[in-house]
Amino acid sequence: MSRFEGKVAIVTGGAQGIGAAIVRRLASEGAAVAVVDLTAERAQPVVDEVVKDGGRALALGADVSRTEDAQAAVAAAVTEFGRIDILVNNAGITRDNLLFKMTDEDWDSVIAVNLRSAFIMSREAQKHFVAQKYGKIVSLSSRSALGNRGQANYSASKAGVMGLTATLAIELGPFGVNVNAVAPGYISTAMTDATARRVGLDPDEMRRLASEQTPVRRVGEPEDIAAVVAFLAADESSFVSGQTIQVNGGADR
């Protein structure tokens, strides 16, 4: 398949987990991908993998919650590949705690990385998208946007992504830009394994419990999210905009 032949994508938080799976999927279908993470060194192994498989990719280091870093990352991608067509706002962190224990830093850092970065990167990318009358923005929300104990900061950030997505779709739609979000349920990643250990569970046990509560009786894999992101980034989804797609195996929460 080559749905993205001639297209250029930027994926934030692309060094591991869901982000790395998105990079691999887009590259496998022909996209050149700028892989953005906190350091270029973190992103380089994924880039090397793409290049080894015959694709084109670039490792970029940036704190995408900072305007200057975001501007530099977008500029570097355009310099390397000549244009950008797809932005995937995947960068995200957790700093879980109950409200009475949550610090200002816990709140501010999660809002900055998960929500502010999506705003800044979208603002930078839209300059190119509007000029060329074409662009795709896909951001990562979460089922936790509906509320989750111990995640006031994370839930608020992911609910914010949903609101940002709906608003940008209205503003950018007349310029040929589609804006959507994906809200994963339980996905087996290093982040969810760390969450399991934090609450005193073995990651395998956490996955087993999550599977039992999911109608399809399994947890998600990063590739499940990458497949939906690829659809939203492709031209066949051109009449889909302003949506948050729940990808959670049929779970209601």
What do you see in this structure?
By secondary structure, the chain is of the alpha/beta class. It has 8 helices and 7 strands. It has helices spanning 17-28, 40-52, 67-81, 104-132, 152-172, 190-198, 203-212, 222-233, and strands at 8-12, 32-37, 57-61, 86-89, 135-140, 177-184, 244-247. Helix 2 links the parallel strand 2 and strand 3. The mean pLDDT is 95.
Class inferred from helices and paired strands? alpha/beta
* Radius of gyration using CA atoms only: 17 Å
As residue ranges, the low-confidence spans are none
C-alpha geometry? globular
Numbering strands along the chain, what is their spatial order in the largest sheet?
3-2-1-4-5-6-7
How are the secondary structure elements laid out?
Elements lengths: L7 E5 L4 H12 L3 E6 L2 H13 L4 E5 L5 H15 L4 E4 L14 H29 L2 E6 L11 H21 L4 E8 L5 H9 L4 H10 L9 H12 L10 E4 L6
Parallel strand pairs: 1-2, 1-4, 2-3, 4-5, 5-6, 6-7
Helix pairs in contact: 1-8, 3-4, 4-5, 6-7
List keywords for this structure.
single chain, 253 residues, alpha/beta, Rossmann fold, 2 domains, 7-stranded parallel β-sheet, 7 strands
In a few lines, what is going on in this structure?
The chain has 253 residues and is an alpha/beta fold. It contains 8 helices and 7 strands, in the order E-H-E-H-E-H-E-H-E-H-E-H-H-H-E. It has 2 domains: 8-185 and 221-247, NAD(P)-binding Rossmann-like Domain (Rossmann fold), CATH 3.40.50.720; 187-219, no CATH class.
